[in-house]
Design brief:
The chain has about 240 residues and is α/β, with parallel strands linked by helices. It is built from nine helices and ten strands. The strands form two sheets. A six-stranded mixed β-sheet has the order 6-7-8-3-9-10. Strands 2-1-4-5 form a four-stranded antiparallel β-sheet, with no helix packed on it.
């Protein structure tokens, strides 16, 4: 069985020369739920964007055994990696919720009957089936985040990758989203500053700072290592 995510000595600098990733290596196994944490500018979002070829650095990135650097693999990898951005408005752009969720399967050229079934299944998975004909930009932030997740679930991904999923949510919407993610049987890598989310959902956490992985281990051990967290601008949840 292949690793869900395999990153080997990945290094990346932006065109202005700013180094964003420095010799990053990690492996995530099928079914793992992993939190990626660190201060702003640590390289978390840059790392995530390498998982479906939006950015390409030096080193190796493999998803489900496929090399992301091989152009012939990109369409398959982008279907395998469900990437949900921090702002759902970056992901929702169609006239209705149905159109947003159907976009990926339609782009894949699937028959309409299968597209409709995937839309139904994806909206059911996030408990938003009643919203199928709603206008996406009229929804609340929490509702938009669920729809954004459904747009990638409709592609039947192997891995779900989320960037700051609880940002901007009120307490009820936040708890609802945590419960939803907890129930999903997918491999997950989630970049977040929400340490309560990390505590409640992720058995494993990876800490990044200045483009490097500085710790990788069990959440219950790392999350309350006060000295380690303070050294990297983080705080344990109360």
């Amino acid at each position: 069985m292949h690793h869900s995510i395999e990153i080997d000595h990945l290094t990346f600098a932006y065109p202005d020369g700013h180094p964003a990733l420095d010799d990053v290596s990690l492996i995530i196994q099928p079914g793992e739920k992993v939190a990626l944490i660190g201060p702003n500018g640590a390289g978390k979002s840059t790392l995530i964007l390498h998982l479906n070829g939006i950015l390409t650095g030096k080193g190796f990135v493999r998803v489900c055994g496929l090399d992301v650097s091989q152009p012939g693999n990109l369409n398959r990898i982008r279907a395998m990696v469900g990437l949900v951005f921090q702002s759902p408005d970056d992901q929702l752009f169609s006239p209705t919720v149905y159109d947003d969720v159907a976009f990926g399967p339609l782009y894949q050229g699937l028959p309409l009957e299968e597209v409709n079934q995937r839309v139904t299944d994806a909206l059911n998975a996030v408990r938003m089936s009643a919203y199928i004909q709603r206008v996406s930009h009229h929804l609340s932030v929490g509702e938009k985040k669920r729809i954004a997740i459904s747009t990638v679930l409709s592609m039947n991904p192997e891995v779900l990758v989320l960037d700051e999923p609880t940002a901007g949510l009120d307490p009820r919407a936040r708890r609802s989203l945590i419960n939803l993610l907890h129930e999903m049987p997918l491999t997950m890598l989630v970049s977040t500053h929400d340490m309560h989310l990390v505590r409640d959902l992720f058995p494993r956490m990876i800490i990044m700072d200045e483009g490097r992985i500085v710790a990788d281990g069990q959440t219950e051990q790392l999350l309350y290592n006060t000295a380690l967290l303070e050294q990297h601008g983080l705080e344990a949840p109360c």
